[in-house]
Design goal:
The complex is a heterodimer of chains A (152) and B (257).
Chain A (H helix, E strand, L loop, with lengths): L21 H21 L4 H14 L4 H33 L6 H29 L9 H8 L3
Helix pairs in contact in A: 1-2, 1-3, 1-4, 2-3, 3-4, 3-5
Chain B lengths: L1 H22 L3 H4 L6 H16 L7 H18 L7 E5 L6 E4 L3 E5 H6 L3 H16 L2 H20 L5 H14 L2 H17 L6 H11 L12 H9 L15 H11 L1
Parallel strand pairs in B: 1-3
Antiparallel strand pairs in B: 2-3
Helix pairs in contact in B: 3-8, 4-12, 6-9, 6-10, 7-8, 10-11
Classes of the chains: A mainly alpha (152), B mainly alpha (257).
Chain lengths: 152, 257
């Protein structure tokens, strides 16, 4: 069966039901890989990965439903991370250069945000691998938000 | 929408729950850290970079008299000598400055130019006042930022240019008002150690005559500052003392040539 054609006119189709083409899998997987690469290059500037996924989303805006959905999920997942990392980044800068005292609160926040970053990293890798295989990996909360935002 | 709200609440609960749990631990104690550790370590690092470009003088004839003057000043003014680290450097520039980690740098050219120990004490008192009045803190921050930035860009933490530039930043960032404050406080320090506080004014006028090479070249209008000191009133506190022997002073001047 030629995939990616039978649902074209169905606006209520769920992402789980889509059977993507090979090139769609590649592009959708690219969204997550893009954010992974951006995390590595962009550290410690947390804006970089949000920008990278944002740019990738703009590029995929006119793509197929499968590609769009995954690029939106990748973008949405970066928003809270961007906020958390930004707070951590500027807090660190203030400790380094403004002689704000190091505190247990900072270390607690540092650990929490890093745990969240690790969770985000694992989920991104899982999404990239699953998407490449043609499966959909829905994240907790972000998957649901993406379902609301991204319509066929 | 309900599903989003529910999942959002779970996520927020997880995040803030983790944060709450981690907040219960006294990490500072557990990791043997203290609040100012980062600033201290950075200052130490910046000092190490600056230190490399200095030609330190370890001659006993130079260090011993300066140490005597500094400890006498500290004793008379209730300052711990452990808080001030005096470094004498062989340098042709008539200069002395306060820098990171409470280091007070005195160039040999400055010692050579001073007419008597009171004038030298006036310079030391002025710099010490900068430390005590907290004028250096904000300048040190700027110095740290610039040093870290330049070291990262150039990849060369050992260059003279870097150290000189960062030291200049400290000098230039101290405002005219702060200079006046340090002059006043310095004159009080001199008075407390039974030296003539008006030597502060004399010293300022001396620097004026050195023109471009003046120690105060970064600080404007030494004449006005001297006038300001002359307007100050001090209680008479007995005959002014001589801290160093004539011999020690001459040896100090000779060693600085």
């Amino acid at each position: 069966m030629e995939s990616g054609e039978i649902y074209i006119n169905e606006s209520s189709v769920r992402i789980e039901d889509v059977v993507p083409h090979e090139d769609e899998k590649e592009r959708a997987s690219g969204c997550y890989i893009m954010s992974l690469v951006a995390v590595m290059i962009g550290l410690p500037m947390p804006i970089i990965n949000l920008l990278a996924t944002g740019i990738f989303y703009l590029m995929s805006r006119k793509g197929t439903f499968f590609v769009r959905w995954n690029s939106i999920q990748a973008l949405v997942s970066q928003v809270p991370l961007f906020i958390m990392n930004n707070i951590l980044f500027w807090w660190t800068i203030r400790i380094l250069f403004c002689y704000i005292d190091l505190s247990s609160a900072y270390i607690a926040y540092f650990i929490t945000v890093n745990l969240y970053n690790i969770y985000d990293f694992i989920e991104t890798v899982r999404s990239a691998v699953n998407t490449r295989k043609g499966k959909v990996h829905k994240w907790h909360l972000y998957g649901t938000i993406t379902d609301k935002i991204c319509k066929r | 929408m309900k599903k989003i709200l529910k999942e959002f609440l779970i996520s927020a609960l997880l995040f803030f729950g983790t944060l709450y749990v981690t907040l219960q631990v006294d990490w500072m104690k557990a990791l043997h850290l203290y609040p100012t550790i980062v600033g201290d370590k950075l200052s130490e690092w910046v000092w190490k970079i600056s230190e490399m470009s200095l030609r330190k003088v370890n001659d006993h004839d130079v260090c011993a008299p300066i140490d005597s003057l500094v400890s006498e000043m500290c004793k008379a003014n209730g300052i711990s000598t452990a808080d001030i680290h005096v470094v004498i450097t062989r340098d042709d520039e008539v200069n002395a400055y306060a820098t990171v980690g409470n280091h007070l740098i005195i160039n040999t050219a400055l010692i050579e130019k001073m007419k008597n120990e009171s004038q030298l004490c006036a310079v030391i008192a002025h710099e010490m006042a900068h430390f005590r009045l907290g004028h250096i803190q904000s300048a040190v921050r700027q110095q740290t930022i610039i040093t870290v930035f330049l070291a990262l860009i150039t990849g060369n933490g050992n260059s003279n240019m870097l150290a000189n530039l960062t030291n200049k930043i400290i000098s230039n960032s101290i405002t005219r008002a702060k200079e006046d404050e340090a002059d006043e406080q310095g004159a009080r320090y001199l008075h407390a150690m039974h030296l003539d506080p008006m030597e502060m004014a004399n010293t300022l006028e001396t620097f004026e005559s050195y023109g471009v090479l003046s120690y105060f070249m970064d600080h404007s209008d030494s004449k006005k500052r001297a006038e300001h000191i002359r307007k100050m009133h001090f209680k008479k506190n007995g005959p002014y003392q001589q801290i160093l022997s004539e011999e020690a002073w001459v040896r100090l001047k000779k060693a600085c040539l």
